[in-house]
Write a structure and sequence with these properties.
3-stranded antiparallel sheet; 4-stranded antiparallel sheet; alpha+beta; 15 helices; 13% strand
């Protein structure tokens, strides 16, 4: 017999999968996915694109690149938790000042110091990056590395990347267009245009709470604090500000009143169809506890913090997978039912279509 607690957990998971666009109607564009999820972890470029694939139908990786390059409707930069995220361009102006806290600047400064750069050196490096982008942008990080070297700055130990990070944290640069297979860096002001009026901090906190719940609810204040990299007190201020927009729940979780009520959701057992999710998929990064999806399968997240691509089956991780020689190679945790194998084979072909534009 299934206990009431397990049913409640599955209902919460079903609601979250719907909020994440993994169940229900798919999104129609990369921008629609980014707008729903607010921020998609982006240090793995393929993983960020695959997060779009699994929440849409019929798009390709080229569609994501067009949004980055031609439409300028998406960008990648350092935001939540000091990590690269893919966001809608229009959300950059309020999300960047809200989530890029002084602690992140200090952390990058310590890394640069360990590499032998003084604070003055770091300022010089940021100035070199800004001047280069002003004169010749967009530029790849390898082009910027060469310019930093020409200015007499060391380039070992990934120091150029850390200087680019610092320039991005200061709001000077973002990752905008694609140049071939390389994601180029641009001046934020040039690429995005004149910023709108500055947003009040409390208004931004309210918007953060509202938008987070749209793509992750129901969730706790601790979930939001961990995801955004903000103090618990601040996210509680944001949640309090939108309290009239929330639905009362007996479990203490926060949920927008506009979300589908539990009775209108599919049965708890009716979770998303089998899906192949990419590295760092948002469904593993949006809450404090990944247990409901991973269970004992902690190998999906390695000890050094790498999040592997994995297969989601009946709401749980059922395999890891890899992209090699333009093919999907699945490593199953246990034997899977024939219906699941058939569904994953279709997913594998769709991953190939999405990435290389060909049907297998």
């Amino acid at each position: 017999m299934v206990c009431a607690g397990e049913i409640a957990t599955r209902q919460v998971q079903a609601a979250r999968f719907t909020a994440q666009l993994l169940a229900g109607e798919p999104a129609h564009s990369p921008v629609e996915v980014a707008a729903r999820l607010l921020a998609i972890q982006g240090q793995d470029g393929r993983g960020a694109r695959l997060a779009i694939r699994s929440r849409t139908a019929g798009l390709t990786a080229d569609d994501v690149d067009r949004a980055l390059t031609d439409d300028r409707s998406l960008l990648i930069t350092w935001l939540n938790r000091g990590t690269l995220h893919l966001v809608c361009t229009e959300d950059y102006w309020w999300l960047h000042p809200l989530t890029v806290r002084p602690q992140l600047h200090a952390a990058v400064g310590r890394v640069l110091s360990r590499g032998g750069l003084t604070a003055s050196d770091a300022d010089k490096g940021v100035a070199v990056i800004e001047a280069a982008l002003t004169a010749s942008g967009p530029l790849t990080r390898f082009q910027l590395r060469d310019m930093l070297a020409s200015a007499g700055l060391p380039t070992a130990d990934n120091l150029p990347l850390h200087l680019i990070t610092l320039a991005s944290l200061r709001g000077i640069a973002v990752r905008g267009p694609m140049i071939g297979a390389q994601h180029a860096i641009v001046l934020a002001a040039d690429w995005l245009g004149k910023p709108p009026r500055s947003v009040d901090h409390d208004v931004a906190l309210a918007e953060l709470a509202r938008r987070y719940l749209a793509g992750h609810g129901p969730a706790s204040d601790g979930d939001l604090a961990k995801w955004a990299g903000l103090p618990l007190g601040q996210v509680r201020r944001g949640l309090t500000a939108i309290a009239p927009e929330l639905r009362d729940r007996s479990d203490g979780l926060a949920e927008l009143a506009t979300a589908a009520p539990a009775g209108d959701l599919p049965p708890a057992a009716d979770l998303p169809p089998p899906k192949l999710l990419g590295a760092y998929d948002p469904v593993l990064l949006g809450w404090a506890d990944r247990g409901p999806i991973l269970g004992e399968r902690r190998e999906v997240v390695t000890v050094n913090g790498l999040f592997r691509p994995f297969a989601l089956v009946d709401g749980r991780a059922a395999a890891t997978w890899a992209w090699a020689d333009r093919q999907v190679a699945i490593s199953r945790f246990t034997e899977l039912p024939e219906r699941v194998e058939a569904a994953l084979a279709i997913e594998g072909r769709d991953v190939r279509r999405f990435l290389v534009g060909q049907e297998q």
